[in-house]
Write a structure and sequence with these properties.
The protein is of the alpha+beta class and 183 residues long. Helix content is 55%, strand content 13%. It contains seven helices and three strands, in the order αβββαααααα. The radius of gyration is 19 Å and the shape is elongated. The two termini are 32 Å apart.
Length: 183
């Protein structure tokens, strides 16, 4: 079954867990220690978001550690995808192509190829949040940074490190606004 079809099925199951006039605002797939899980966001007008993690069969997960792990993974993947290549791959590619037309320094073709590879690796939504995806994005970013000669330190690693607090905040929000008591 295609991912889009899986998401539709899980969204229908998630709708059954909505309270009152809540609607399912998002279904985010992830690969966790439980296998495929789906972090579902619910909204009611301008009220805050509530959350529910569904397992592969569409049943609610109530184990705190499993919910925390899935929420952290989802946030890390979002952060990595948004930070990869400075977060603006199209703009970076345009600048590199412009540089090719004006100066054409050595290694430029490698840099453009690395941008293309990174863009393919990040992909387009929907994507499955997984440690494998994180590793692939990290490797593709490193290849790009090497091609660009970014010098000591990795801008991507720095962005990931500075985003750690946001990942923790997101995870805490999911736990605090979870639709079921956590064990």
């Amino acid at each position: 079954m295609e991912l889009a079809e899986q998401l539709e099925g899980i969204a229908a199951r998630a709708a059954g867990h909505a309270d009152g006039d809540e609607v399912v605002a998002a279904v985010i797939p992830a690969e966790s220690s439980l296998g495929r899980v789906y972090l579902c966001a619910y909204r009611r007008g301008d009220d805050g978001t509530t959350w529910l993690l569904l397992d592969g069969g569409g049943e609610p997960v109530v184990e705190r550690a499993a919910v925390r792990d899935a929420a952290s993974l989802v946030a890390l993947v979002e952060l990595a995808d948004d930070s990869a290549g400075g977060g603006e791959l199209d703009e970076l590619r345009s600048r590199l192509v412009g540089l090719r037309l004006t100066e054409n320094p050595p290694g430029l073709d490698d840099a453009i190829a690395a941008v293309d590879e990174l863009e393919r690796t990040v992909g387009t939504p929907p994507r499955i949040a997984s440690t494998v995806h994180l590793e692939r994005v990290g490797a593709a970013v490193r290849k790009l940074e090497d091609a660009l000669g970014s010098g000591p330190g990795s801008p991507f690693a720095a962005a990931m490190k500075s985003g750690a607090a946001a990942v923790q905040e997101f995870t805490a929000d999911v736990e605090a606004n979870y639709k079921r008591p956590l064990t």
